[in-house]
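Annex B. Sample input.
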Amino acid sequence: MHGADGWKEVLDPVVARYRGKVSRIYFRADGGFANPEVYDFLEAERIKYAIRLPANRILQDRIGYLLKRPVARPPNKVRRFHANFSYQAGSWTKSRRVIAKVEWHPGELYPRVGFIVTNLSRPAERVVAFCNKRGTCEQWIKEGKGAIKWTRLSCRTFAANAVRLQLHALAYNLGNFLRKLATPDPIKGWSLTSLKEKLIKIGAKVVSHGRYVAFQMAEVAIPRQMFQEILRLIGGTAAAAAPRASMRRPCSCVHHQTTGGVRPNASENDQISPSIAVRTARGEGSRPRHPPVLPERRKSAKIHAGSGFIWRISA
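Annex B, continued. Sample output.
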């Protein structure tokens, strides 16, 4: 079975979905889609494309001058050369633009050669950079396999596995949104695996009181200030995405008072004050412990730095 089998059934609904909604559609693919029928379809839909083209003797002869080893001592860096020409295969109805990339790597006897067929008018270097981003997409797929385990589809029916895969994709999108929109600069480059193991799946001690539940989390990988910054970014993103008049339950963050009765039994029981206390009110009609303070803090909807903070969701 060829990798591009059924390509039209896949592309048709995607193109129909975006037709008239975006000014331009771009398409990039590997050599499995190097098919004249694919080219004709994309050109008829006015879609800009860059597709890998399998090498052959005719293409290599067109860039024979770049396949000769350069004279002099090779440097300790990769040398790249590009070529641009028109080419028409026997099964094509017309000639198309082909870009060749030749790379000489240190310590390698032969060059690495690649060809791209495209209808883009940008320079050859930019077309190659655009096509190389396809590998970036494959790295994201690999990240989802490693962090989310979305290939674990062990259900007996196809429909159940489809739902399970959609849930995995939703989890990946949520994690990616967290990484892109609500992570401070020190951890901006973390993978989803690092975020899952150091931020989400961390140990905590649950302390249950009469009116709230406190989660005491350790500062092993994420310090207290970074937790505060993450919650601040999440709150700012939610405020920008939803209007104030929405039906969302109100959320407020108040300053942690070390002597204001937040943890009344901490001093008597010789407990260490937690780095972060996340408190959720339980039951309908539960009232905050500090009526004079909470209403003012709830209006500001800000996270205030201190020895800790309280995250209270009103019932």
